Amino acid sequence: xxxxxxxxxxxxxxxxxxxxxxxxxxxxxxxxxxxxxxxxxxxxxxxxxxxxxxxxxxxxxxxxxxxxxxxxxxxxxxxxxxxxxxxxxxxxxxxxxxxxxxxxxxxxxxxxxxxxxxxxxxxxxxxxxxxxxxxxxxxxxxxxxxxxxxxxxxxxxxxxxxxxxxxxxxxxxxxxxxxxxxxxxxxxxxxxxxxxxxxxxxxxxxxxxxxxxxxxxxxxxxxxxxxxxxxxxxxxxxxxxxxxxxxxxxxxxxxxxxxxxxxxxxxxxxxxxxxxxxxxxxxxxxxxxxxxxxxxxxxxxxxxxxxxxxxxxxxxxxxxxxxxxxxxxxxxxxxxxxxxxxxxxxxxxxxxxxxxxxxxxxxxxxxxxxxxxxxxxxxxxxxxxxxxxxxxxxxxxxxxxxxxxxxxxxxxxxxxxxxxxxxxxxxxxxxxxxxxxxxxxxxxxxxxxxxxxxxxxxxxxxxxxxxxxxxxxxxxxxxxxxxxxxxxxxxxxxxxxxxxxxxxxxxxxxxxxxxxxxxxxxxxxxxxxxxxxxxxxxxxxxxxxxxxxxxxxxxxxxxx
Length: 560
Known about the structure:
The protein has helices at 7-19, 121-129, 135-149, 219-226, 238-242, 247-264, 272-275, 304-310, 374-377, 421-432, 436-471, 474-507, 538-548, and strands at 24-27, 37-44, 54-55, 58-59, 65-69, 76-81, 85-86, 89-90, 93-94, 99-106, 155-161, 166-173, 181-187, 193-196, 213-215, 295-296, 341-344, 347-350, 360-368, 379-384, 393-396, 515-516, 519-520. By secondary structure, the chain is of the alpha+beta class. The chain folds into 3 domains: 7-350, no CATH class; 372-510, no CATH class; 515-548, no CATH class. The strands form 7 sheets. Strands 16-14-1-2-19-20-21 form a 7-stranded antiparallel beta sheet. A 5-stranded antiparallel beta sheet has the order 10-11-12-13-15. The protein has a 3-stranded antiparallel beta sheet with strand order 3-8-9, with no helix packed on it. α10 runs parallel beside α12 (474-507) and α11 runs antiparallel to α12. The longest helix is centred in the last third of the chain and has 36 residues, at 436-471. The radius of gyration is 25 Å and the shape is globular.
């Protein structure tokens, strides 16, 4: 049986969900329209600047060492032996179409640190992308690295995909006095999709199916040694032992997976109460009774646009809809400024934590296509800022240079740059927060037009690059794709700047400028006509009176 963990540990798990808040979905070949594998990732952090990392392929002499700095903080952790040859990496995808994403689940607090450990979760991703060609090889590299150098992070779920397979790897360190980590990896069955969002999702797993499931040799024995599990091996559940579900894990984390699944599968209402953090059959920690499956079959095969839309959600149309409660204000703003929980009269309440959130640094949909040469087949659809209002630009994995708008060093979180996509997209969203329900319509229309153009052009760009690849060589194909990706991303950023200028003119000072024949309207003498000045919705006025009484009452006015 599984031993209960302390309330303090559960609190740490909830805290982890608030601090490291990312979302991943995994799409297998058989679940996509075109036979590509896809994974998604939203890097949600209040201190992360959205930019596209790039590492060229390189060769190193024998005995070379590589410095490791913690990805979240930049802290120096130590050195590891450098590989003789490293592969080129664009963002979270390498030149062989291998892609890796992550979400942090935290887990047992006593396993959250390991003195002397060198490999944190972020370094694990980017070092592995330089050393592995396939998802299976990546899992081997990642687990070997933590075994050799120690694991310097708390519990983590990784999405790992290549042109043929998609895997979820869940890992947690062994704590102080130990070295390395315990872990389980499962291949998502073809035709199915999976997802994770800051909560461990692997429960029981097959012990004798190395084709579809890999695990640390001591993943069960370690739990027995610690006194956390004493049942039969076949009943061992990785999540229930190392990161049990509590209210925070369900409401803030699993709810996001549920929301993404609900967009593409019609049978997800059966898990609505679980996503809302409601406990079945009584009992404080009885969340395991109605857990969502690790993978589901979508109602129909998914396009890359469908997968992009899975990453765009505020629980619209559900009991958790963030546009409908009083906190959304008069203009249905689906964002809540942190903290995630708050108190009234010593009673704790929460805001929702949706897939789309204001603090996203960058996000992507990584698409791997087996029928094309690797440099052409790998497409990292990359965007910055909030997933709901970002625009995903096509970054081919074979590019040799990053577009200026995404380039590392083009501004940072404390330094504005007018050519930075991150700052341009943030200008639009932060202005839109003032009158969200009106402005988001313009943003979504522009987004749809630009992404539609990118998607429509992709087959022709693929064909042109493939022709170059076959006639004049891979390098020329890469040069072509580099130019294309740069032009499209920079042009997209320029169009987003134009969108900002339009929104600023139309909605400044709470007014709404009138338009006629596609232009802002002027009178016959060239002066702007009077703008619309719509009031607040009636329910908002009712709420003000309810909270303030007669404070704003007009003496002698109507109703007296």
